[in-house]
Amino acid sequence: MRLRALCPATSRAWTVELRSHAGGLAFVCRQCLGGGPVAAPSARAAALTHLARHARSDVLAPHLRTCQCHERGCRWHRRHRGCSGPVRLLLACERGGRVWRLADACTACAAATAHAAVVPDTALLIPPPATSRRQRRRNEPDGRTRVREMFSYLAAALPAGASPATRLIALQCALRMNASMRVSLSLGLLRSLRLGGNPSPWQELEQARWLCLTPGRETGEVAAVLLDDALLGQAPTRPDRCHAADWAVRAGCPSRAGVLGPLLQVVSVYLTSHSHPETGQGLNEADRTARECGIQPAELPHVLEQLAALGLLDSWRIAADTEDLGWAMRSPQ
Ligand SMILES: [Zn+2]
Ligand SMILES: [Zn+2]
Ligand SMILES: [Zn+2]
User: Fold this and answer.
1) Which of 209, 242, 320, 329 has the maximum number of C-beta atoms within 10 A of its C-beta?
2) Nearest to 117, CA basis, from 70, 48, 183
3) Residues of the chain with pLDDT > 90: what percent?
């Protein structure tokens, strides 16, 4: 178990609560008591934006950051397995979306927390330690890891009912956005995902206040500005993220996208990103798999059957005791 830091650490944990009142919804920050009335469709976005601002203004050197979950007696998750792993920013949602918390947490506590996601690559939120460019590049996550982290993050940041097509578009936008949070997806890319000419995912993302469509510079693209402040954290490493976005397109088997449809594409990219690169085997909690793919746990076996029938999955099994899902992809990526 990691020992507590000897010097008192700045508390890097912030909580925002959404409350109903006569006129509608209001959000209140438990730390600064800021907040105010919000419209229901943009409540989630307003809460996350507020939390991200705290995280950016209360900066602490990486070596001074401690697991805030541990500092509070690990009351945010059921079992305490002991803290371990690097400390990252964890976004958690409680009481069905009424309470949102952003806090530094270690890898073990993050994994044990329900309805939570690690905020990907916090390089802008927390200044990186002074390392050489080459060293930093070696420590950067690869495409598979970035896609895995983004799935986890989007599961918390998008509305629970977001459609599979919406998740595929959000994944591509989040990975391809530039430093000013603008993104454009070419119609060729959208066609290869079989999502060209379908406005409804974009409308869903606009309604969730996750992005706002902007006029494209060219006719062959859809352009947008992302409104999700927490994503700003990953701005400085764009070439890596574009590489990860391309990896996600390949993992979704574009040649068979028409047969698969958006749901099977999402699950296929998800399983591939959680598989061992060489063996194609993977193990993950079944519940988490379903939630991060945007489906109900009861739907998961049927979806896996379909992937197996199409030859993308060799085998899969949900263990009765641990409810872990184990699988083997047909062709390791
Ligand atoms: Zn606040
Ligand atoms: Zn904990
Ligand atoms: Zn911990």
Assistant:
1) 329
2) 48
3) 31
Q: What distance in Å separates the CA atoms of residue 159 and residue 44, rounded to the nearest whole number?
A: 8
- Residues 110-156 have pLDDT tens digits of 888 888 888 865 433 433 334 444 444 444 567 888 888 888 888 88
Length of the chain: 333
Q: Which residues contact 317 (CB under 8 A, 6 or more apart)?
A: 325, 326, 327
Give the number of the ligand closest to the Cα of residue 92: 2
Sign of torsion, CA 171 176 179 180?
A: negative
CA–centroid distance, 89 to ligand 2, in Å, is 13
pTM: 0.70
What's the CA-to-centroid distance between 167 and ligand 2, angstroms?
29
**For residues 238 and 183, what is the distance between their CA atoms, to the nearest angstrom?**
11
% pLDDT > 70, the chain: 86
Q: How many angstroms does the Cα of residue 37 sit away from the middle of ligand 1? A: 14
